[in-house]
Amino acid sequence: MFSSAKLDPVLDSGIIEPMSKEIARKWFKQAQHDLEMAERNIAIEGYDVTAFLAHQAVEKLLKSVFALLGKRIPRTHYIDELARELNLEPDIVDGILDLTGDYTFARYPDVSEHTPYEEYDEEIAKDKVDKARMVFFEIKRKYKELAEIE
Fold first, then answer.
1. Is the dihedral of CA 14, 18, 19, 20 positive or negative?
2. In this structure, is residue 142 part of a structural domain?
3. Which residue range is the domain that position 85 belongs to?
4. What CA–CA distance (Å, rounded) separates 18 from 9?
5. Which of 1, 9, 25, 42 has the most crowded CB, counting CB atoms within 10 A?
6. Which residue has the higher pLDDT, 131 or 21?
7. Is the pLDDT of residue 13 over 70?
8. What CATH number is given to the structural domain containing 53?
9. Quick count: other Cβ atoms within 10 Å of Cβ 80?
10. Residue 115 domain-assigned?
11. Model confidence over 88-144: pLDDT tens digits?
12. Taking the mean position of all CA atoms in its chain, how far away is CA 145?
């Protein structure tokens, strides 16, 4: 159910408002779920779905950081842009760069010579999940409040 609650709280002080933290919690929990589903799709050879969900997990993770910081959550799927806007370290951005294209590439048959599911295999899918996990680890290390949400 949708509520009329303000979705993009703005901070007037340096204190994180409870609503910001609650929105961050929701984004973070969904990010964790998407990452788990990405991993599960490897077992059923849904490698393209794994890649897409790894991207989605990182996108939602980064959006949880925007919420945690009381910033407006950008309406974009370009996770490299989200990472840069958050001024993340280069090693985190490098992991994110490899996942950025999967939002489109894993879903649309007209962006490659082959259909998306033919472009991905188990090794690629596992690599995508590993990169997403690395981003999760680094973000939780940097934003300790997110680690407390688990």
1. positive
2. yes
3. 18-147
4. 10
5. 9
6. 131
7. no
8. 1.20.120.330
9. 18
10. yes
11. 999 899 889 989 888 776 778 787 788 888 899 999 999 999 999 999 999 999 988
12. 17
